[in-house]
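Question: does this match?
>
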Amino acid sequence: MNIKKAFTHAGKFHADDVFSAALLRIMNPDVIIERGNQVPEGYDGLVFDIGYGEFDHHQADSPVREDGIPYASFGLLWRKFGKDFLAEDAEEFEKSFIEPLDDSDNGGTRDKIADIINDFNSQWDLPENQDDQFEKAVSFATVILENRFRIFRSQKKAEKIVQDAMNRSEHGIVILDEGVPWKNIVREDGYYYVIYPSFRGGFNAQCVPVSVDSYENRLSFPEDWRGLAGVQLEETSGIKGLTFCHKNGFLLAGNDRDTVKNACILSLRRGNRFR
């Protein structure tokens, strides 16, 4: 990873060459990235997105993934260096983040991030230097990429915590000791509620949606609890210590974990889902 300089094409840039440069910057913040219309003869740095070399994808026989998505330069660089960042999870990150950008660059489905990077290009009616705009785009892409790494690593840690809690669960109720992301993990049938500490104090119980992108719950909290709080909720539910139930029935709060768990069990009984 001791790359001191790299060369790419001049002119209009895209997410492909910008994110490639961003990846190199993360690998070595002092890397010098040069741009031009032709690779200098005898150039002794890394070359990407130009020159028909290892990290270019414009030649007729450029690599294609097994799923049919062609590599662009960003993907080719990741194929070489990705495991240095995310080890055995490099392929998963490639699938979720890099493939859509590669696909867009190769004329496939448009990608929103690619469109945003494209907006950094200089405009015909403004006195903007294209190389300066490229540097701005690379700085922006570097932040995006570092954030994606940070979030991805955090989510992988969360997966183990949530999976362990799922293995210990009873009655379709998953209890977490800390507030970690769980919606992308609790997907299997048979899970209805997830309990976790609230940042406001006490504990929350949230309904498991029918799918990651859905607002429909597998089992919402009882209709007569919804929109109630405090004493009114305690009296209606018959459970002391409940503090709040969202009007849409997807969230419940209470003073402690056992109170919230008891409310979930009662909700399961009323919904004929208790097992």
Notes: DSSP finds seven helices and eight strands in the chain. The CA atoms of residues 20 and 74 lie 5 Å apart. Strands lie at 5-9, 32-36, 46-47, 173-175, 193-197, 203-207, 242-245, 251-254.
